[in-house]
Specification:
The protein is 78% helix and 0% strand. It has helices spanning 2-29, 34-38, 46-55, 62-74, 88-123, 127-140, 144-158, 171-205, 208-215, 220-257, 263-272, 276-304, 310-313. Helix 5 (88-123) packs parallel to helix 8 (171-205) and helix 8 crosses helix 10. Pfam families: BPD_transp_1, BPD_transp_1_N. Keywords: Cell membrane, Membrane, Transmembrane, Transmembrane helix, Transport. It is found in: Cell membrane. This is ABC transporter permease.
Length: 315
């Protein structure tokens, strides 16, 4: 366990360092004028422009600007947003709850519905299996932004079952507001998890030891729990972990579509405005979340299969 945690910690630090350089360089090379964002597009005097350029180090070379940011970040100062005129730490603290609730809500839908549909489809061949295959095929080919537009059109505009835009106030109202975004975000990942679950369960059901247990009259629930799901758990865990990790990136698209005040929509706006500090902070936060999700998946491998040690599972 200690070796696993040390290796994961070293991997996280190396990934953060490389990602921070890549993101900063990409923002530096992207077109756009931060001064125009600071002034709201108004014409300013050369003196005022020089003051803003010096304050935000906009005229310095890339390595110098990156060094300023890195040394400040190591002291807990993530910088100041030139778009919203507020501290980046405050901005993240205000918007993180919405994104976290959306990701957790979506993850529950993917795990419960995806694995449930996959198991039912594998164990009940016929009409139910065919319907599940058709549904998951359509969902797998459906991009999140298309699913968002379709859900808004049907369930918000025509049926008025759910609100189309905004975060909501209070937990119950937030859940109502986040239902359509969570479903839009879950569609393609849910289909992938259901397909892998179906295939894994069917493969394990056809194995010799399972057929022997059936011939000996072992109860079906016991066979399913001890001999099928246990052995099928690793591929299901792998694809579920990848699906949940991908939510961290896809959440930006869905938050924009539903006008949610989360980290994803803030990242898109900051990238458009060349708001270096905000882009760096939110992007690195997403990298941390991605590495943590993958570490949890590796940890689950060792729990599900004792033959897998944490030392060898860690990459």
């Amino acid at each position: 366990m200690r070796r696993f945690l040390l290796r994961r910690g070293a991997l996280l630090l190396a990934t953060l360092f490389i990602a921070s350089i890549a993101i900063y360089a990409a923002m530096y090379l992207a077109p756009g004028d931060p001064i125009a964002v600071l002034t709201g597009g108004r014409q300013v005097s050369p003196e005022a422009r020089a003051i803003l350029t010096e304050r935000y180090h906009l005229a310095d070379p890339l390595p110098v600007r990156y060094w300023y940011w890195l040394t400040s970040a190591l002291h807990g100062d993530l910088g100041y947003s030139i778009g919203t005129r507020e501290d980046v730490s405050t901005l993240i603290a205000q918007r993180a709850p919405t994104t976290m609730l959306l990701v957790v809500y979506t993850s529950l839908i993917i795990v419960v519905a995806g694995i449930g549909i996959g198991i039912l489809s594998a164990l009940k061949p016929g009409l139910l299996d065919t319907a599940a295959l058709l549904t998951t095929t359509v969902l797998a080919a459906l991009p999140s932004f298309v699913a968002a537009l379709a859900l808004i059109s049907v369930f918000a505009v025509k049926l008025h079952w759910f609100p189309a835009l905004g975060d909501g106030v209070g937990f119950a109202d937030q859940i109502k507001h986040l239902t359509l975004p969570a479903v839009a975000l879950a569609c393609s990942s849910l289909a992938l998890v259901a397909r892998i679950t179906r295939t894994s369960v069917r493969t394990e059901s056809a194995r010799e030891h399972v057929q022997t247990a059936i011939s000996r009259g072992v109860p079906a629930r016991q066979i399913l729990r001890k001999h099928i799901l246990r052995n099928a758990a690793i591929p299901i865990t792998t694809v579920t972990g990848l699906a949940l990790a991908s939510l961290i990136v896809l959440v930006s698209i869905v938050e924009q579509a539903f006008n949610l005040n989360g980290l994803g929509s803030s990242l898109v706006t900051a990238a458009q405005n060349k708001d270096f500090a905000v882009v760096q902070a939110i992007s690195l936060l997403m990298v941390v979340a991605f590495v943590i999700v993958n570490s949890v998946v590796d940890f689950l491998y060792a729990l599900l299969d004792p033959r897998v040690s944490l030392g060898t599972a860690a990459v």
